[in-house]
Amino acid sequence: MMKDRILSELEKADGYVSGEQLSKLLGVSRTAVWKNIKQLKEDGCKINSVTNKGYMLCEKPDLLDAGKISSRLCTSVVGTKIEVLKVVDSTNEEVKRRAAVGAASGLLIAADRQTGGKGRLGRVWESDTGGVYFTLLLRPDLPPNDISGVTLAMGYGVCTAIRKYTDLDAKIKWPNDIIIGNKKVCGILTEMAAQTDRVDYIAVGIGINVNHSSFPDEISHKATSLYIETGHKIDRNEFLACVISELDKAAARFIVGFTKEETDYFKSLCATLGRNVKAVKNGKEIEGIATDVLYGGELQIRLESGEYVSINSGEVVVQGIY
Ligand code: BTN
């Protein structure tokens, strides 16, 4: 696009570039240059315009860009089609709308900002600029009961990507949160449409706190971001590409089945194991030590009585983590 070519000329330049130079270089009229500069400003670029000198780029916006993300990818399942929106109510809602009109498995919709970001259990997910918010559409040929395993595999993919990209000691809080220390950096909300025995689609919504420098008072004791933990801002396009690539590997492994080594590695990343937990099973509160993640992804808990029970979804309160 012409505006991208103008932006790249401004990036290369050391100082001001005149409208005339740009129009000659790119073979368009000076009015076209001016119109594209106006668009770049609307996109969030800070560009100084000075009569007789021309244009100088002062600041580029940190926006997600489907082209920049896809150019770093070579995935087979996840993100085979990527769309980026500047603002949307919720990427989960958008993916569900697309799924209803037949969108294919592998579609990934990301947004810079959500006006109605949704968390689990009807909670709100704060979705200001600086985070990475996206939803993946999958149409696995599975019965509805097996879906918690897919979400778990996606959490494992995000955790691995954070560890690779930042070197931080990210861990999984079973089933769907990623934590650093005792604070949450990522949450996953999976929604599903299914017949009794077959899944039509699942929408795996993932929110990662990336470049936030602070959080609202109500959540600041339990939320953190990659910026807070590493001390430097993250290139969100590069990071999201890394996440998608790990999600793709995790999805592929889920289909063929994780090896014993991979399962052991997954368990070593699970911060819930070995801790005292409280959960609800069949409407009854249970408490005990989390002892294992079973083959289907269920969390095994040893109750005080010595009896072992397993749960396959739901909220788990873990002693010592938020
Ligand atoms: C949670 O921990 O409660 C789950 C949070 C999930 C948030 C993500 S952000 C992208 C996607 N769109 C939403 O509206 N929610 C999920």
What descriptors fit this protein?
five-stranded antiparallel sheet, elongated, binds biotin, 322 residues, 14 strands, alpha+beta
Please characterize this protein's 3D structure:
The protein is an alpha+beta fold. The protein contains ten helices and 14 strands. The strands form three sheets. Strands 3-4-5-9-8-7-6 form a seven-stranded mixed β-sheet, sandwiched between helices. Strands 13-12-11-10-14 form a five-stranded antiparallel β-sheet, with no helix packed on it. Strand 11 and strand 12 (299-303) form a beta hairpin. The longest helix has 21 residues, at 236-256. It binds biotin (BTN).
Sequence-ordered SSE layout with sheet pairings:
Layout: H1 2-12, H2 19-26, H3 30-42, E1 46-50, E2 54-59, H4 66-70, E3 81-88, H5 91-100, E4 107-114, E5 132-138, H6 147-166, E6 170-173, E7 177-180, E8 183-194, E9 199-208, H7 217-220, H8 226-230, H9 236-256, H10 260-268, E10 276-281, E11 284-293, E12 299-303, E13 308-311, E14 317-318
Parallel strand pairs: 3-4
Antiparallel strand pairs: 1-2, 4-5, 5-9, 6-7, 7-8, 8-9, 10-11, 10-14, 11-12, 12-13
Helix pairs in contact: 1-3, 2-3, 6-9
The chain binds biotin.
